[in-house]
Design brief:
- This protein is an alpha/beta fold.
- It folds into 2 domains: about 120 residues, ATPase, nucleotide binding domain (Nucleotidyltransferase, domain 5, 2-Layer Sandwich), CATH 3.30.420; about 160 residues, Nucleotidyltransferase, domain 5.
- It has 10 helices and 14 strands.
- The strands form 4 sheets. The protein has a 5-stranded mixed sheet, sandwiched between helices. Strands 10-9-8-13-14 form a 5-stranded mixed sheet. A two-stranded antiparallel ribbon has the order 5-6.
- Strand 9 and strand 10 form a beta hairpin.
- GO terms for molecular function: kinase activity.
């Protein structure tokens, strides 16, 4: 059985895992990031990789390679982490440093959402001639498109769903989706509308499900905003499948029914096939490392 290491790097944590070529998660761990400077951050990645090997009783020579998901802009051909909002790695030669550190030649790096999307595409059993979209709603909002078995990247910035302007009923003006409907924006909105401090996104959805009526307008506003952007995807791509991930929606699967109900209002009959092919991620927090590991086995 061939194996690879998958790494999912974020500003607060690093997940590392040993992945089989069939996508099985053989071992996984999470450690804290250290974004205080570039070398300390790289050392944390090395630590995560070494520890996951040690815990699994494998050695680096048992691995086919390393796949790494990095936030922000990535130069995949050169293996460079070009720019990130939450890491100190401007133009950081990540692939070269990992080759030097571990001696493995096959190092695959890509944007973290693309890595997660690849795992979800495989798990969804999407056909090669289909258009598949993975949407993540968490501290940010983004998506990745796989068309005819390959990523659709445009000129390099395709999938930035969070930048789409939507009409915010709360603000009565156009706003970028991520600014008003990602996790931090939801918390900010609750503080403003309900004058409730120190309330997490998790608390918001729990109180709504507990039937606290004051939270209904919050959920309506947020889901209305998502649906405006999702209808843009429907119109532009007419995808065969959409899978949702990210902590906001993966941890609150009841939101999918609300999204479908509202999206149907926008859709003409010829678009409504999509409503039967929208689902929540089954991989959840593992999709980043699984996708990163699986990309090692892709030879195209």
């Amino acid at each position: 059985m061939k194996k690879a290491i998958g790494i999912d790097i974020g500003g607060t944590k690093i997940a590392a895992a040993v992945i089989s070529e069939t996508g099985d998660l053989l071992n996984r761990l999470v450690i804290e990031s250290d974004p205080s400077d570039r070398e300390k951050m790289f050392n944390r990645v090395v630590m995560a990789l070494e520890q996951v090997l040690k815990d699994s009783s494998y050695t680096v020579t048992d691995m086919e390679g390393i796949g790494v998901g990095v936030p922000g802009k990535v130069d995949r051909e050169q293996g460079i982490a070009v720019f990130q909002n939450n890491l100190p790695w401007a133009k950081f030669p990540l692939s070269a440093r990992l080759r030097e550190q571990f001696g493995l030649q096959r190092i695959m790096i890509d944007n973290d959402v693309y890595m997660a999307a690849f795992a979800e595409w495989r798990a969804a059993g999407a056909k090669k001639d289909e258009t598949f979209v993975y949407v993540t709603i968490s501290t940010g909002i983004s998506c990745s498109i796989i068309h005819n078995g390959s990523f659709f990247r445009g000129a390099g910035f395709a999938g930035e769903l969070g930048l789409i302007p939507i009409f915010s009923n709360a603000d009565k003006k156009l706003e970028r989706l991520e600014k008003v409907s990602a996790g931090p924006a939801i918390e900010k909105f609750v503080r403003k509308e309900l004058q409730v401090a120190n309330l997490s996104t998790k608390d918001v959805f729990e109180r709504f499900q507990d039937g606290v009526r004051e939270y209904q307008p919050i959920i309506d506003e947020v889901t209305d905003n998502w649906v405006q952007a999702l209808y843009s995807i429907s119109c532009l791509l007419d995808p065969h499948k959409v899978v949702f991930g990210g902590s906001v929606i993966a941890n609150n699967p009841f939101l999918l029914d609300i999204i479908k109900e509202k999206l149907k209002i926008y859709m003409i009959p010829e678009q409504q096939h999509l409503l039967n092919h929208m689902s929540i991620s089954h991989l959840k927090q593992n999709n980043g490392v699984v996708g990163a590991g699986l990309r090692v086995f892709e030879r195209n």
